[in-house]
Amino acid sequence: MYEAFLARHGGVVRSAALMDHGLSRHYLHKEVLAGRLVRVRRGWVAQPHADPQLVTAARHGLMLSCITEAARQGLWVRDTSTPHYAVLRSGAEIRPEGAVLHYHAPLVPCDRYALSDTLENTLVHVARCEPFEDAVATWDSALNKRLVDRSALAQLPLPVRARKVLDATDPFADSGLESYVRLRLRWLGVPIVAQAWLDGHRVDFLLGERLVIQIDGAHHTGAQRTSDITHDAKLALRGYTVIRLAYSQVMDAWPTAQASIMRAVALGLHQRAELV
């Protein structure tokens, strides 16, 4: 039946698409009366438990994009409190309260009635809309998840802002926090290796030869935390210095965190100890 077709479209489709799929107008009307379908707006129907974000997009003549669509794709996004939409058909849109609308022409062509943007267009909107660090973190996330290829992105006619974001990306960034730390330490002039392999485990960053920076996200608890502490001890016995940073230190108290790293570099803790 039509349920599988609806499921492939997030539970929200144009009535014409269902009729093209074989449903008669009469049968469609019966499904609405029975409560198995809901009229979203003229020409659109949805299942009662369809994705509410897609329902909102259809109701307002919009397309999910920028940070809203990035978050739906499982990408790192710093703040999702404000919904973002792209406008494909200017003049037909209705602005939801508090929403941000993007009127830029899509880089990759979209279906006229698409409710969610392509990943490439989504990333370009993120680059235009978000602060530079936040945009790089989202792009890093897409590359790390292998949802998009860096070389393929580079071949697109990216706007200047998006090109700068792409140039600053690193597909090895394992979390958004790592993206922020990498960008904020570039000026130090010290070699930085992301996801370095030391003593049987990966570390987030190796500065120089001996300074390890580890970023603790929400998952660093329980057994994971015990494993981290054990590995820190092994590294210390091998002459490494480990600095651990929590989410709040990176996102809310970076000057203090940076001061600790700068002090460690000033003391030469990133360099191999000289034999006496």
Mean pLDDT: 90
The global form is elongated
Number of strands: 10
Strand order of the largest sheet: 7-8-9-10
Biggest beta sheet attributes: 4 strands, mixed
First-residue to last-residue Cα separation: 80 Å
Gyration radius, in Å: 24 Å
Number of domains: 3
Element pattern in H and E: HEHHEEHEHEEHHHHHEEEHEHH
Total helical elements: 13
Q: Regions with pLDDT < 50 over 5+ consecutive residues?
A: none
SS content category: alpha+beta
Measured as a percent range, the helix fraction is: 40-55%
How much strand content do the residues show? Answer: 15-25%
Domain AbiEi antitoxin N-terminal: 3-43
Domain DUF559: 180-264
Protein name: Type IV toxin-antitoxin system AbiEi family antitoxin domain-containing protein
Organism: Leucobacter albus
Can you give a write-up of this model?
This protein has 276 residues and is of the alpha+beta class. The chain has three domains: 2-49, no CATH class; 59-167, no CATH class; 176-266, VSR Endonuclease (Endonuclease, Chain A). 33% of the residues are buried. The strands form three sheets. The protein has a four-stranded mixed sheet with strand order 7-8-9-10, with helices on both faces. It contains 13 helices and ten strands. Helix content is 43%, strand content 16%. Residues 3-43 form the AbiEi antitoxin N-terminal domain. It holds the Pfam family DUF559. Residues 180-264 form the DUF559 domain. This is Type IV toxin-antitoxin system AbiEi family antitoxin domain-containing protein.
